[in-house]
Amino acid sequence: MASARKISKERSPMGTWFYRIVKAGVIATFLGIMVLGIFVAIARSEIDSFEDLKASPNGQMIRIRAADGTVIQSLGPSFGRWLTINQLPSEMKDAMVAVEDRRYYMHPGVDPIGITRSFYARAVQGRWTQGGSTITQQLARNIYLNSNKEFGRKIREIILALAMETKFSKDQILELYLNKVYFGGGAYGIDAASQKFFDHGAENISLAEAAIIAGLVKAPSRYAPTADAQATVERAKVVVAVMQDAGMITATEAAGVKPADVKLAAESPQDSVRYFTDWILPQLNGLIDETEKPIDVWTTLDLKMQRAATAAIAANVPRGAQGALVSIDRDGAVKAMVGGTDYITSNYNRAVTAVRQPGSAWKLFVYLTALEAGFRPEDMVEDKPVEIGGWQPKNSGGKYAGSISLRTAFAYSKNTVAAQIGQEVGTSSIANMARRFGITTPINTQPSMVLGTSEARVIDMTQAFAAVAAKGRSITPYGISKVTTIDGETLYAAKPSSSVQLVDGWVAGAITDLMQSAVATGTGRAANIGRPVAGKTGTTSSNKDGWFLGFSSGLTTGVWMGRDDARSIGGLEGGRAPAQAWAAYMRIAVANRPVEKFATEVTFPERLEGEEPLLGEEALLQLDENGMPIEGDPMIEDPQLEPTNEPQPLDDAFIERAIGGRREPRPAPEGSEDPRGLPRPF
């Protein structure tokens, strides 16, 4: 017994220190656990409830689709539909757990094995190469913290993860994670990612698609299909291999997964379509009240037409100039819009924002007013020098053709005739006509306004020509056909706009007749596309602006070209580059549409005897105090006026003078004598 006491005394120093170390360790561990528990309890009390986390504002996702459903632009942080744990595809849950946190269902929010492995790799390689974060830690970081690699942030992340595990079930945590984690390309949550990359909801996700999405979390900017499709595929193969290793899929199933065969959603165009989307987006505020749910905005834009429009402007616009194009279908649907040569360098939308002088394209309103006042295409007018209040309009080329038909004057855009018409019908009447047809910019009523000195927008001018194509009925351009939630609930659907008759059908038919001649044999010859076309050129002084506007087969298109600083451009005329761009676009745009003849077989109101409109001093159109024409009682129609829907030949005498050559006179058809003794141009 004495021997035992002796041995005990000999070992007591070592035993005492060992005991003290163990005791201190136990106490420190106990205190650490107690302190950690206190922090976890405090964190748990501050964590939002599950329902609050689900309902936390994420920002609205807006997807804009072309007429065929193709997504052409996505806006805002992309948060898709919230899918419950039972709605989440098992393939997606398994893929995410396998690649991000294999022991997810076994740890309390922090994985000691993962942390040990991460520290070991750090010690061996001298830097952090492996993450030890669990799915719960990642969720805590995404919701409450940032991604800074700081020790203090990591401790807070661990505390929050442990707190979450005490407050939520594993299924709830996984549900939150899969609906909130960032997958790249602006997409948060698997439904948004599935919509973004595969263009369908996540409930229909395949195993290959699940592997692609699960592989994105590690490095969204690197592995996103929009960044590097090949890297996406290789990363997905790694996910499939990990799933097989974890026993979640068999070797046969793994061999059948082909990530490279997954059809990815087409990447949204980023150039010219943005002019169109910039135009329609502000309109949403007046159409819907929804500001939280993700929505799809279905538009009228035809991508084939848009590509053709972009190419036509790019190929024909003069160097250093800009170009714009608007194309409107017969119901007002805008099928293509180009606001400039390159959206990336200039997002200024010249199609709907810029105001430019339309030049002779404004004569549409001059001649509409004249026709409504009683003029007819076959009426003879004088192309001669005129002076109005000190203003002396000049024709292009400085030549005068003398006595010509109204048709010829329009086809060759004779400025002197337009000036005389303005004097007779009144510039205020022409301004009223322009307003009637949708011109929204200020209009001056000076004599020179007949030559297009008032500024206008491309979309307004195109709308006016579209109304003529609609036989004189108003047309309202629109770009949004419907708005739905991504669940398919309709929030807005476009309805046919109320249409009013702007001018009588015979007036619209007569101006169409004139415009058809302008393209067939006049200044708009470059716009011929092998089917009936009616249109008008426009060129401003010093060639600062060039226009061509016209319609064919139910589609109306306006083209403008010029410089933003309004400097002159050598050779820029409406009948050249703009008309060529118009034709290049329209050949493609109407290729699959039936050929349509124009309704130019119109019956004109009969004239009062002795009140034929003549340009000159012999007879002036009678106007009321508001500058509007005074209408008379109809008489019997002249039986010799045979209507036709074909482009009519121009005056031989004018053509001879214009080209400086000699032509044999064409035999006059029977019954071609005018009651006033003047030869008819028909």
**Share of residues in helices:** 25-40%
**First-last Cα distance:** 144 Å
Query: What's the count of strands?
Result: 15
Largest beta sheet: strand ordering: 2-1-6-11-12
Main β sheet profile: 5 strands, mixed
* Number of helical regions: 22
Point out poorly predicted stretches: 1-9, 616-682
Integer-rounded radius of gyration:
38 Å
Can you put this structure into words, describing what you see?
By secondary structure, this protein is α+β, with helices and mostly antiparallel strands. Helices cover 39% and strands 11% of the residues. It has 22 helices and 15 strands. Strand 11 (480-485) and strand 12 form a beta hairpin. It is elongated and about 135 Å long. The termini are far apart. Mean pLDDT is 82; it is low at 1-9 and 616-682.
Structure summarized in a few sentences:
This protein is of the alpha+beta class and 682 residues long.
